[in-house]
Amino acid sequence: MTSTTTSADLFARAQQVIPSGVNSPVRAFGSVGGTPPFLTEAKGALLHDADGNEYVDLVGSWGPMILGHANEQVVEAVRAAAGRGLSFGAPQPGEVTLAEEVVRRIGPVEQLRLVNSGTEATMSALRVARAATGRDVVVKFAGCYHGHVDALLAEAGSGVATFAMPGSAGVTAATARDTVVLPYGDSEAVAALFAERGGEIAAIITEAAPANMGVVPPLAQDGVGFNRFLSETAHAAGALLISDEVLTGFRASAEGHYGIDGADRSWAPDLMTFGKVIGGGLPVGAFGGRADLMGLLAPAGPVYQAGTLSGNPLATAAGLATLEGLDAAAYDTLGRASSTLQQLVADALTTAGVPHVIQTAGTLFSVFFREQPVTTYEDAKAQDTAAFTRFFHAMLEGGVYLPPSAFEAWFVSTAHSDEVLDRIAAVLPAAAKAAARG
Ligand SMILES: *Cc1c(COP(=O)(O)O)cnc(C)c1O
After folding, report:
1. Which of 149, 191, 280, 378 sits CB 3.0–4.6 Å from 123 for a disulfide?
2. Which atom number of ligand 1 is nearest to the Cα of residue 158?
C-alpha cells in the first residue's frame, strides 16, 4: 500500500473491482464528468480528499451529517458503544431508546421497526400496506425516489433522474404492472385513478416533500395540502398513505415535513419511513406508524420482515446521539445557514444573469437552473443541466463540494458557520459566471 495514492489512481483501481468504481451510482460523477475526489477525512463542514484538497461540504453524505462530520458527541457515543460490542443479534437497550425518541418526536408514529437503510424501510412499509389491505397496486409519483425497491424504481428521482433512466432493468413485468406512476401534485390524476381502480390500490407512497428531483414542495389546492388530499383520497377507498420521510425526516423541521404540513393534525399518514438523519452516518432506516398496522409484523403477525444487523448498538448509538444534538437551537442554526446560503446563491446567479429558481421544504432547499418554478418531474428535467455542470465544476475547483447532480438537494449542517458560508460566498461569483458562459 502506498500513502500517496491519488483519487485518479483509486478510481482506476476501483473501476477494476467495483462496477463503475462506485457503490452508489451518483458518486461516479457520470452526469457532470471528471474523477470523483476520494474522501479521506472530514470534520465539521469540511472534507479532505486523497489529493490533499479541502472542500466545504454541501452533500453531508446526502443528509445524515446534519450535525457536521465527526461531531464529538456522536463519535464519543459510537466509540463507547463499540467498546461494549458491535452487534448482538439480540435485543439491546439502544434500540428501545431510539424508537422511543422517534415516537416522541413524530406524531403519527406509534410503533417503529428499525432496519438498515431507507430502501429496506420503504420495501417493508409497502409489504405491510399490501398485507393490511389485501391489495397489490401501489401508486407513486414521477420524480419521487424511494430507494432501489423493484416496485418503486419507475420514473424515480435521485440517480435514476441524474442518469435520465426510465426505471431499471431487471424489474419483472408483473412488478411493474402493480405500480402506477402519476405526475406529482396532480390531484385530478389521483382522483381519476381512484375512481377507476380504487378497490385495487393498497397504498399511495410519496415523499413528504419530494427532494430527489430537486426540492418540490407539495402545494395546496383549494386550501387543502397535497399530502392531506392524498390521505383523504386513499382512506376513502380503503387504501393507505405511506409518507416517505427518509430525506425530510428530522431535517425539514424537527418533526420532518409532517411538522410543516401536518402540524395542524388535520391528516396523518398511516405509515412513515425514515433513514439518513436517523442513523447519524451509520446504516439505519426505520418504518413506523399506526400500531394496528405495525402489529401485522412477525412474529405476532403474518408479515415477515427481519434483519441480522437491524437495531445494532453502534447504529442506534449514532442515531440517538444525532437526535439528541438536534434541539431547538440546532434547528435555528440549520435554518439560518440554509437561508443565508440560498440568498448568497440567488445573489450570485442573479448578478451573472443565470436563470434559476430556489425551492425549499423547511430548512431543505435546492437550486434549479431554469426561470420558472418546478412543480413536476417534467419541469425538473427541463432545467439547464449544462449550466449546472459548469457551475458545479467551478465550485469544486474553488473548494466547494456540491451534489454532482442538478437533481439533488444541497445539504447544510449545524457546522456551517458564518465563516464557512463566507468561504462559499467567495467562490460563488466565479461559478455563477461559469454557469452563464453557455
Ligand atoms: C435516500 C432515500 C431513500 C433510500 O434510502 P437508502 O438508505 O439510500 O436506501 C428512500 N427514500 C427517500 C425519500 C430517500 O431520499
Report:
1. 149
2. 15
